[in-house]
Amino acid sequence: MAKLIIVRHHESEWNKLGQWTGIRDTHLTPYGFQKSTEMGLLLKDIHIDLAFASMQVRSIETLSCMLEALNLFHVPTTHTAALNERDYGDYTGKNKWEMEQLIGEKQWNSIRREWDCPVPNGETLKMVYARVVPFFLGHILPLLQQEKNVLVVSHGNAIRALIKYIEQVSDEEVCHIEMLFGGVLIYDLDQEGHVLHKEVRKVSSDVNA
Q1: Which of these is catalytic: 11, 38, 85, 123?
Q2: Which pTM value belongs to this model?
Q3: 27 is annotated as an active-site residue
Q4: Which domains occur in the chain, in start order?
Q5: Residue 176, CA atoms < 13 Å, CB-side half-sphere
Q6: What is the per-residue pLDDT across 90-130, written as a single tens digit (0 to 9) for each?
Q7: Nearest 5°: CA angle at 69, between 63 and 74?
Q8: Which residues lie closer than 8 Å to 9 by C-beta, 6 or more apart?
Q9: Is 9 considered catalytic here?
């Protein structure tokens, strides 16, 4: 099949402040715009047929920068809430590092990394998986099966959920999945959407998140 390219949005204004952003809309910083352009240039050797992004502005801005860097101004683009970041509920807007001190490192890591750890009035990673993976299977995988190269720009936890499916990661091991800023994942998949080959490209990034 064709290539699936997955990218995390780059530094947002709240990333820079160390705040849990979740479903809150915040723009990229100047640094985030710069690095998004650099990530686009990593894909000069791959033709992109279609692109997907979340409904959140930091994802949309990252995708726009990448396509502009490649002079791909007419690539059909779909925005969907299925690819939105995890809702951090009552933790939204709180400083991550202050919360670590308040609730303790163990609980803090559980909230950030575990499969089914709840946050008040928010989503677990399991809940994010329940919206991301069906969208992938229903809308993106068929395009790959039609030999269309697809670029997906989303968010840390939405991508972690997608990686869990693609790489068949267990619930217990999902805590070890990390989608770093500046990373570009390029997958060859089988007909079920599972990994056959994975390539990682990246730009140097220093983000407070």
Answers
A1: 85
A2: 0.96
A3: no
A4: 3-202 (3.40.50.1240)
A5: 7
A6: 999 999 999 999 999 999 999 999 999 999 999 999 999 99
A7: 65
A8: 28, 32, 36, 56, 58, 59, 61, 62, 153, 154, 155
A9: yes
